[in-house]
Design goal:
- The model has no long low-confidence stretch (mean pLDDT 89).
- α9 (216-261) packs antiparallel against α10 (267-292).
- This protein has helices spanning 42-50, 88-92, 97-100, 103-112, 117-120, 131-145, 161-173, 185-191, 216-261, 267-292, 358-369, 394-398, 403-415, 432-445, 465-473, 486-491, and strands at residues 2-11, 16-26, 31-36, 59-66, 72-75, 149-153, 178-181, 194-201, 206-212, 318-324, 327-329, 332-335, 338-343, 347-351, 377-380, 450-454, 478-482, 495-499, 504-506.
- The protein starts with a strand and ends with a strand.
- It folds into 3 domains: 2-202, P-loop containing nucleotide triphosphate hydrolases (Rossmann fold); 224-292; 318-506, P-loop containing nucleotide triphosphate hydrolases (Rossmann fold, 3-Layer(aba) Sandwich), CATH 3.40.50.
- It is of the alpha/beta class.
- The strands form 5 sheets. The protein has a 6-stranded mixed beta sheet with strand order 5-6-7-3-8-9, with helices on both faces.
């Protein structure tokens, strides 16, 4: 058993409570998924459970950890800065882990994870790996460490579909308690048997958490039914209240009218009317008490509001005619040939194994298109730092500094559920999901009609992601994307290419 008791997390920057009086017991076989909107404190919770020092710079946390000497294996959402310059071998051999683990176990684990053993002993720097390879290597180290409890922050991010399916099976079949954050609805549906939902209500002034010992589909269904029932009851109570108050006002007005018009020659009648008015006031107080017990409309976090404005490209317009034979990174050949032609309203998704060169290809496409004057390119890289100055605030990043533009930007940020405080935080201090929203806002503000998106939905919550998918599906420009999000591929992509060693294969 692994237990935390009465945990309260406060964001120091804006004195906002993210989580209050949260208690949880994890037992063998638990696969507890933490869900909730971007910036609600999900990652902070996992970091604190693993190592309190990871959150001490930006959060105050109170509560108890009753770990009973159980060890935790923690996968962060992003590779820590101090780990990025290490070689793969140095990273994996921390505390002589590789040296003390038998070759059979190393080899078998690598095979299960589709991780080439050459990479395990590589002198390649962690920062040089693809996003999926970074996640694989970290998961591989956790597997060799064999911890008692798994704490996984977006473990499916950037993984190819093959490895993603292995990960889902690993979570399903391990008897170790697993506490994981995921925005991947398909993964949630397949693996979670407990749901922990962290919410921020009333413009993030109030927090709420729900722990449900059911799978994800059941939780969503029960929550929607409960909210619908409560909303129906609240509407009924409101109608009854309006009828009561209308009756009260009608009686009060009539008695008032009679009091004002009764003859002074009828003191007895006046006394009776005063008593009647007292009874009417008592009726009003009774109705007020009934109002206090009325069913209220359910409180829930609202989804983001977002759409692309005035974007259109002709269907026959040639956007890209890319030919590379072979496709190389430095001296390494990734595939024999790349041949890709894209037109005005195409929605293309590129998939393939981790390390096959998808992100590098997206960078090549971006550099080949960014100076075109007949189209407006919007690029969302896999590594946000490639195009984002993390010392800037969201307002600085999106605005040109004019009062009119700043007002517009703040309105857009509000629609994306940023608080006024968060609009002025450094982007370094925002969650990955909040940073991802900024790319979409920038593309909209700049009227981009060609979108290059490298894993566009990976950091959006299960509430925001359907909105983003719908917006991209209805987009009247061109989308060239890389994604392993199965719902994105199903709902948005019209053409899917697999990048293999020989080149593109249409799926």
């Amino acid at each position: 058993m692994f237990q935390i008791k009465n945990v309260t997390i406060e964001n120091i920057q804006d004195n906002r409570i993210l989580l209050k009086d949260f208690s949880l017991v994890l037992n063998e076989g638990d696969k507890a998924a933490v869900i909730g909107e971007e910036g609600n404190g999900k990652s902070t919770l996992l970091k604190w459970i693993h190592d309190e020092s990871l959150v001490s710079s930006y959060a105050e946390v109170s509560g108890e950890k009753l770990t009973r000497n159980k060890t935790t294996g923690y996968l962060p959402q992003q590779l820590p800065i101090q780990e990025r310059n290490k070689t793969v071998y140095t990273f994996l051999n921390e505390n002589d882990l590789l040296l003390e683990t038998g070759w059979e176990i190393v080899n078998e684990t690598a095979m299960q994870m589709f991780l080439h053993t050459d990479l395990i002993y590589s002198e390649q720097r962690m920062d040089e790996l693809s996003g999926g390879e970074k996640v694989k290597v970290q998961l591989f180290r956790i597997r060799l460490e064999n911890p008692d409890v798994l704490l996984l922050d977006e473990p499916g991010n950037d993984l190819d579909i093959e490895t993603l399916e292995w990960l889902e099976q690993m979570i399903l079949h391990t008897q170790k308690p697993v506490l994981f954050i995921s925005h991947d609805e398909a993964m949630l549906e397949k693996t979670a048997n407990r749901i922990i939902h962290i919410e921020q209500l009333k413009k993030k002034q109030e927090c709420r958490h729900t722990i449900a010992n059911v799978n994800y589909q059941t939780y969503v269904r029960q929550r929607n039914l409960s909210f619908a029932k409560q909303a129906q009851q609240a509407a009924g109570d409101k109608r009854e209240d309006e009828k009561r108050m209308e009756r009260y006002r009608r009686i009060e007005q009539r008695v008032n009218h009679e009091l004002h018009h009764i003859s002074r020659q009828d003191p007895h009648g006046g006394q009776l009317l005063k008593k009647k008015m007292k009874a009417v006031k008592s009726m009003g107080k009774r109705f007020e008490r009934q109002r206090e017990n009325m069913t209220m409309m359910p409180e829930k976090e609202e989804s983001i509001l977002f759409f692309f404005e005035n974007t259109y490209l002709p269907e026959d317009k040639i956007i890209l005619n890319l030919q590379m034979s072979p496709f190389m990174i430095a001296d390494k050949k990734l595939c024999d040939m790349v041949n890709l032609q894209v037109f005005g309203q195409d929605k293309i998704c590129i998939i393939g194994k981790n390390g096959s060169g998808k992100t590098t290809l997206m960078k090549e496409i971006y550099h080949s298109l960014k100076d075109r004057e007949d189209i407006h390119i919007g690029y969302m890289p896999q590594n946000y730092r490639d195009l984002m100055d993390m010392e800037m605030t969201p307002v600085e990043y999106l605005s040109d500094g004019t009062k009119e533009m700043t007002t517009k930007v703040m309105t857009y940020l509000g629609a994306m559920k940023y608080t006024s405080d968060e609009m002025l935080h450094r982007m370094e201090d925002l969650s990955s999901g909040q940073q991802a929203k900024l790319f979409f806002l920038k593309m909209n503000l700049e009227s981009c009609d060609v979108l290059l998106l490298d894993e566009p939905t990976r950091n959006f919550s299960s509430l925001s992601s359907p909105v983003i998918r719908h917006v991209l599906k209805e987009f009247h420009g061109c989308i060239i994307s890389v994604s392993h999000d199965r719902k994105y591929i199903e709902e948005v992509a019209e053409t899917v290419y697999v990048l293999s060693e020989t080149g593109f294969v249409k799926k």
